[in-house]
Specification:
The complex is a heterodimer of chains A (about 120) and B (about 120). Chain A is an all-beta fold and about 120 residues long. Chain A is built from no helices and eleven strands. Chain B is mainly beta. In chain B, the strands form three sheets. In chain B, strands 2, 5, 6, 10, 11 and 12 form a six-stranded mixed beta sheet that branches. In chain B, strands 3-9-8-7 form a four-stranded antiparallel beta sheet, with no helix packed on it. Chain B has a two-stranded antiparallel ribbon with strand order 1-4. In chain B, strand 10 and strand 11 form a beta hairpin. Classes of the chains: A mainly beta (about 120), B mainly beta (about 120).
Chain lengths: ~120, ~120
Amino acid sequence: DSGVTQTPKHLITATGQRVTLRCSPRSGDLSVYWYQQSLDQGLQFLIHYYNGEERAKGNILERFSAQQFPDLHSELNLSSLELGDSALYFCASSAAPSSGGNNEQFFGPGTRLTVL
Amino acid sequence: AQKVTQAQTEISVVEKEDVTLDCVYETRDTTYYLFWYKQPPSGELVFLIRRNSFDEQNEISGRYSWNFQKSTSSFNFTITASQVVDSAVYFCALSDFDNYGQNFVFGPGTRLSVLP
């Protein structure tokens, strides 16, 4: 158990809908990263938050947004869903303020999103 | 543009053999970070190592070792005396910076099967 929790584990929805994925980092970790893993695109980095502030943005679509709350949990919002958004969404946490920091990343179990 | 190549799509070895997973990266940055992650059949992602571009020392952790060579832009991963539990997909990743901020790119992964 990495100590990172993600809810829900599975999500099935229809095209055009909006969903919210939630991530709670390990106790004490201030950084949260979001990744998408799909068959077409492989693993992609989406976005990184540190202590409530956005630190880095990767291949995140404009239809997607994220935030990190004062209690450090993070939410990834996906809207106007398309079939191609079906993927496994991971979050990870670390104590470091950037991916170059000297702290290990710990991953949650992922949320599998299926868009029908 | 940043790029990570893992030329070996799949590798099969017999238990106790040594195996090396190749990773070649491209970046224009002088400051960057390299990572290896493991994704076992159960699907979770596990962080294995991070290396910064200024540290070319090889690293050993138990049966795992990493060979970072800037001259060839490679960051190879060797498992010594492989075990069935090493069967997984292994991803190499690169994090660097450009005028737009931080980038994070994964390779396509190498699927390692360790046969008993």
